[in-house]
Write a structure and sequence with these properties.
globular; Sulfite Reductase Hemoprotein, domain 2; four-stranded antiparallel β-sheet; 8 helices; alpha+beta; 2 domains; Sulfite Reductase Hemoprotein, domain 1; 18% strand
Length: 319
């Protein structure tokens, strides 16, 4: 199995077309969408793994640290940048965090996997409490100026002993975000259980040593980073890796699409689908369309169809 990271769950139509080509050539025409916004391929011949990696790299994608004891794919709200009730678009911050911790000595051999999720809306759609680090967008006014930041919870996880993440910070300014997460990762790297894989997640450090102790160690590491430096926040993220500052202006004729206020078309099946799968987005005159994928399984022709829809009717992105 080969899994490719898709930070924030956002990829271009060109990348989706390449993923379809990879599925055809190496995985029997099949791919699987995971719950962490990855795509993975099964039954890839071992001798051809390097070829898959090269084809993914051609469109700026990587399978580096998508598995094993690493910082896994950084996820974000699938409606980020589109939802009416979001605090702000979290995707640029998710992309920078994902890129900051990629190919770092600190993060490529942790005691166990480490999961980060970003939520920009008000519904906790990413279930931040089950992550090692859950981040919810917050805007705070200071001296008459609005500042962006994140409420930060740490130490969550599921499995046989589920644990709810606990509040570490009410507000982390966006400029301090990478350093604050690095401090948490440093504590996990030092004190995570490397002898027993079944007790190797951050949540077990919290269970065994207590949250107050974990918080104290995080503060020590954070002070060290602030004084002597740590992993830098990227100024930009490579375009192929999902780098962008905001969603591009839609290219298709979406402004003509009637969504709200329609009395229906008279086709019952279509009207039922539209009622549950099409919603107005915050950009006036445009809609977001949800495609439901049975058990996350796609064949290559379906991937190409989605890419074509993104190009013809959307903004060239598939989320």
């Amino acid at each position: 199995m080969i899994r490719t990271k898709i930070p924030g769950g956002l990829m271009t139509a060109r990348q989706m077309e390449q993923v379809a080509a990879v599925a055809d050539e190496f995985a029997g025409g099949h791919g699987h969408l995971t719950t962490r916004q990855n795509i993975q391929f099964h039954f890839v011949p071992l001798a051809r793994v390097a070829d898959v990696m090269h084809k993914l790299a051609d469109v700026g994608m990587t399978c580096r640290e998508a598995c094993f004891n690493t910082v896994r794919n950084v996820t974000a709200c699938p409606l980020a940048g589109l939802s009416h009730d979001e605090v702000f678009d979290v995707r640029p911050y998710a992309q920078k965090v994902a890129f900051a911790f990629l190919r770092q000595e600190l993060t490529d051999n942790l005691p166990r996997k480490f999961k980060i999720a970003f939520d920009g809306c008000r519904k906790d759609c990413v279930a931040g409490a089950i992550h090692d680090v859950g981040l919810r967008a917050v805007i705070r006014e200071e001296n008459g100026v609005q500042r962006r930041g994140f409420q930060m919870v740490v130490g969550g996880g599921l499995g046989p002993l589920p644990s709810e993440a606990q509040l570490l910070d009410e507000f982390v300014p966006v400029e301090n975000l990478v350093s604050r997460i690095e401090a948490v990762i440093r504590v996990f790297n030092k004190y995570g259980n490397r002898q027993n894989r079944n007790k190797a997640r951050l949540k077990f450090v919290v269970r065994e040593r207590g949250f107050d102790w974990v918080r104290e160690q995080i503060e020590k590491e954070y002070a060290e980073i602030r004084e002597h430096g740590g992993i830098a926040t990227p100024e930009r993220v490579p375009e192929g890796f999902g780098g962008y500052e905001s969603r591009p202006q839609p290219l298709g004729p979406g402004a003509l699409l009637p969504v709200a206020g329609s009395n229906g078309t008279g086709h019952a099946a279509y009207d039922r689908w539209r009622a549950t799968n099409v919603r107005d987005q915050q950009q006036a005159g445009y809609a977001m369309v949800t495609v439901r994928v049975d058990q996350g399984n796609l064949i290559s022709d379906q991937m190409r169809g989605l890419a074509q829809l993104a190009d013809d009717a959307g903004d060239g992105f598939y989320a």
